[in-house]
Amino acid sequence: MKLVLLGTCGYHPTDHRETLCLLLPECGVMLDAGTGLYRAVAYLAANELDIFLTHAHLDHVVGLTYLYSILRRRPLSRITLHAESSKLQAVEEHLFAQPLFPLPPPFERRPLEEVCAIGRGGQVRHFPLQHPGGAVGYRLDWPTCSLAYVTDTVAELDAPYVAAIQGVDLLVHECHFPDEQAELAEKTGHSYTSLVAQVALQAKVKRLLLLHFNPLAPAEDPIGLQAARRIFPNTDLATDYLEVEF
C-alpha cells in the first residue's frame, strides 16, 4: 500500500510544507484536508474519494474549499466526508457559511461509524484523542498491512489510543515540538519528540513517521530526529510529496 504525504505542517503552511493532508491513492482515502489537498489531483487513482477528518481546526479542513479545482481536472463519481457529527456541523455552518464560501463542493457528509469499509478490502476505525475542541485518530487495516494516524494530541504512554494502534506496520504521529518545548506541547494539546517515540515503542509498531511540525521550526529538522531514533530507531520525518510503501 502506498501513502502520499501532500502536506506535513501544522497551523499554517510554509515555503517548504503545506498543512496536513495524506492520501492513499490506491483505495481512494484521504486523511485530513489541509492546504496540501490541491496536490491530490496528480495522484488520485480511484474514482471515489473518502475523506476522514480528525477534527475541524482550520489547518485540517480548509482544503475542502479546493475540491472544485480537483474535480475540474479529475472528475470523481463520489466524495464522502467522514467526521464526528459535531465536526461535520462546524464545517457546514462555518467553513461553508454564505459570506465565506457560498457554494459547497458536491460531497456527502457521513458521521463516523464504528467500522467503515474502504477500498482494497480495508476497514477504518476511529478512537478519541486529547486535544482542545476534541479530535479522533484512525486505524486502517487491510488483509496484508495496517496504518495508524494520530495527530493533534498530547502523547502519553497511558493514553487510551495506545492500545488502539498496537502493532501497526506504520504509525503516522504528530510531533509539533522538540523535547525542549515539552511544557508548551502539553499546554497547547500537542506532542513532543521523546514521548512520541516512547509511544511507538510501547505500541510495538514497525515504523514511525513524524509530521505536523511547528511552522516556525527549522525546516530540515524541526523536532530533533536523533532524540526520537535513540528511543525508536525506525523513525523518519515526513516531508511534502514523500511516498511511503508499507
How many strands, which pairing sense, and closed or not: the largest β-sheet? 7 strands, mixed
Quote the average pLDDT: 98
Looking at the structure, the CATH topology is Metallo-beta-lactamase, Chain A
Kindly provide the name of the CATH class.
Answer: Alpha Beta
Q: Number of helical runs?
A: 7
Pick out the low-confidence regions: none
How big is the Rg? Answer: 17 Å
Number of strands: 14
Describe the structure.
A seven-stranded mixed sheet has the order 6-5-4-3-2-1-14. A seven-stranded mixed sheet has the order 7-8-9-10-11-12-13, covered by helices on one side. It has a single domain (2-245), classed as Ribonuclease Z/Hydroxyacylglutathione hydrolase-like (Metallo-beta-lactamase, Chain A, 4-Layer Sandwich). The protein has helices spanning 58-61, 67-73, 85-95, 161-164, 182-188, 193-203, 225-231; strands at 2-7, 21-24, 29-31, 48-52, 78-83, 108-111, 116-118, 122-129, 135-141, 146-150, 170-174, 208-211, 235-237, 243-245. The chain contains seven helices and 14 strands. It starts with a strand and ends with a strand. It is globular. The protein is α/β, with parallel strands linked by helices.
Keywords summarizing the entry:
246 residues; Metallo-beta-lactamase, Chain A; single chain; 21% helix; 14 strands
Give the secondary structure arrangement, pairings included.
Blueprint: E1 2-7, E2 21-24, E3 29-31, E4 48-52, H1 58-61, H2 67-73, E5 78-83, H3 85-95, E6 108-111, E7 116-118, E8 122-129, E9 135-141, E10 146-150, H4 161-164, E11 170-174, H5 182-188, H6 193-203, E12 208-211, H7 225-231, E13 235-237, E14 243-245
